[in-house]
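Subject: Protein record for review, amino acid sequence with backbone structure tokens
Why sent: The fold of this protein is of interest and is recorded here as tokens.
Enclosed: The protein record, placed directly beneath this head.
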Amino acid sequence: MGRRRRPADHARAGAPRSNASRVRQDACMLKAIQADLAIIKDRDPAARGVLEILLCYPGLHALVLHRISHRLWSTGLPILPRLLSQLGRLLTGIEIHPGARIGHGVFIDHGMGVVIGETTEVGNNCLLYQGVTLGGTGKAHGKRHPTLAENVVVGAGAKVLGAITVGANTRIGAGSVLLRDVGPDSTVVGIPGRVVHQSGVRVDPLAHSALPDTEARVIRNLMERIDELESTVNNLRRCLKEVAAGRQLREVCGGEAQSLKDREILEYLGDDP
């Protein structure tokens, strides 16, 4: 019959595993910080060197502080993780809840006004611009913030709200408000966000402003239909005048509406169809 282990024996037996776990976590955090640094060098043409990035990029500072606060949060330590989060907000203008899970190679460009909620998950190589909110809706507990897959680009001022999932390689246009799930390889624009698929087309991850102007397209389509209706009404009026005057109808009662020739409309819609 073997000797029964005392609690101290259990502690000594478990110590190597605990130390190994801490070493792995430290290595993982260091790897994530290195990936964050590398993605800035790769994606920001204004980055002149490693020292400049380390000293002058608030997005990197906010992520480093978050990775430390998230490590403390995962151990169950009270108050201190939130204090670090608020310190990061004070120094960088970026608020990241310590409970948020952020992958490797994430780039918060400029970053002022960015808010990332507690149950948010951000995948590897995502790009967030200033004013982005990854927020929740309502007061329900549990998962209430969005999940971004890999390589998602969220444009300036965009809001992604609720426990929704955004697929990989998706772009969310500046100022958009996304409230529902989006599949991979999509483009989202508008309020509320509408999806325009661009399958098979390679997109520059920095070109978050090169998005289709769907509202202008809809307005142009409506104006063209109004133009056609006005032309038809004018033709009918001319034909009725011909009939009332007792003259023989011509084959074509011609005439053009002027809707799309109005200067103000063309200035608003642009010259391209």
User: Anything to note?
Assistant: The CA atoms of residues 56 and 152 lie 24 Å apart. The chain has six helices and 15 strands. The chain has a mean pLDDT of 79. The longest strand covers residues 186-189.
